[in-house]
Amino acid sequence: MTEKKTILRALAGETQDVPPIWMMRQAGRYLPEYRATRAQAGDFLSLCYNPELAAEVTLQPIRRYGFDAAILFADILLIPQALGADLWFVTGEGPRLSTITSQAEVDALKPTDAIHDRLSPIYETVKILARELPKETTLIGFAGAPWTVATYMIAGRGTPDQGPAHTFKNEDRAAFSALMERITDATIEYLAAQIEAGAEVVKIFDSWAGSLNGADFQDFALAPTAKIIAALKARHPNVPIIAFPREAGDAYQGFAKATGADCVALDNSVAPDWAAQHVQVDGCVQGNLASAHMVTGGQKLIDETGAICRAFAGGPHIFNLGHGITPDADPENVQLMIDTVRSGNWRS
Ligand code: 1CP
């Protein structure tokens, strides 16, 4: 056995008796200690840009649960802000941004080099975490994938169907492609800086990949992710990368090979047995318990957690939810999920 951390072993392709575990949005509103620190910071963005407090909320779920990985506390919408978009959060509603709907607005964005002016506190958070995390815990940095980030920059908010982004893509392909390129370049520099500050793994969140089909999926979900991964691998060949093309469906198959990702994160619309056969054959997978179980708990949580562990037991697997935990989740259900995974009682 190597000394390597459990998450890094899974990402290197090792099959383990018990899969390592962490949870999307593990630092978040379901935790009373998170709500207290967020109140101390004043608001969500002030929390993101305060390295001491952002490191504190990143560490809270590690202290409480001993997850195998910590994910940097920040947000995918900090890149638009670093590129010059206005960004604010409306309490109870979500993010709002100035919109982009023309080539002139794309041209007015700040140059890629300028992003670090805004984002340097995030690198400071990473440095604190690299120092303070327990030796066995892996530090994950992240960014949004270009398509998902573009959907927010174009619409100025979250949308149920990413309608404004599809309209812009279909009506002004040149300006849309220019925007995608600007985000892609900025994301490469942002993730490289996180790695240089101490992130051991990075994850690319394409939350709205599922709204792209056919050639659009190839051009705007797969290709930009492949470009980011190639650029990062050229500079940091030993840093593993997790890609999350959420709700990609059949297009999960082959995604790791086509993009160079070391691991593909699965949402809970994917059947674990199908994914073991068609996705895990190419390497590590992460996922994919429905986050609703963190609200409802009980025997159903235990059964579903076990079924996922069994389905992926023949290959490299990192246990996680299929999407972020929600604010109405019960912290005790998170403990039940972890205990179920680590007990190994799910083995038949
Ligand atoms: O009120 C609060 O405290 C803010 C809630 C919150 C949190 C905890 C937001 C606002 N962002 C975050 C942190 C965050 N966001 C992390 C930190 C690390 C962790 O997982 O613990 C990460 C990785 C994200 C990523 C993120 N932000 C995504 C991709 C993943 C996903 O959930 O699909 C997306 C789409 C966002 C945008 C965003 N930020 C916040 C909200 C409420 C949203 C979604 C808005 C919408 O679509 O309407």
Determine Rg (CA atoms, Å).
19 Å
Looking at CATH, which topology would you report? Answer: TIM Barrel
Low-confidence stretches: none
Class inferred from helices and paired strands? alpha/beta
The topology string of helices and strands comes to: HHHHEHEEHHEHHHEHEHEHEHHEH
For the sheet with most strands, the description reads: 7 strands, parallel
Strand line-up in the sheet with most strands: 1-4-5-6-7-8-9
Query: What percentage of residues falls in helices of 4 or more residues?
Result: 40-55%
Kindly estimate the percentage of residues that lie in beta strands according to DSSP.
Answer: 5-15%
Please count the beta strands (DSSP E, at least 2 residues each).
9
Average of the residue pLDDT scores: 97
- What characteristic shape results from the CA principal axes? globular
Instruction: Give the N-terminus to C-terminus distance in angstroms.
Output: 25 Å
Per DSSP, the total helix count is 16
Q: From the 3D coordinates, which CATH architecture would you assign?
A: Alpha-Beta Barrel
Bound molecules: coproporphyrinogen I
Whole-number tally of structural domains:
1
List keywords for this structure.
two-stranded antiparallel ribbon; 348 residues; alpha/beta; TIM Barrel; 16 helices; 7-stranded parallel beta sheet; 50% helix
What does this structure look like?
It is built from 16 helices and nine strands. It is globular. The model has no long low-confidence stretch (mean pLDDT 97). Strands 1-4-5-6-7-8-9 form a seven-stranded parallel β-sheet. Strands 2-3 form a two-stranded antiparallel ribbon. The chain is of the alpha/beta class. Helix 2 (32-41) runs antiparallel to helix 4. Helices cover 50% and strands 12% of the residues. The chain has one domain (6-347): Alpha-Beta Barrel (TIM Barrel).
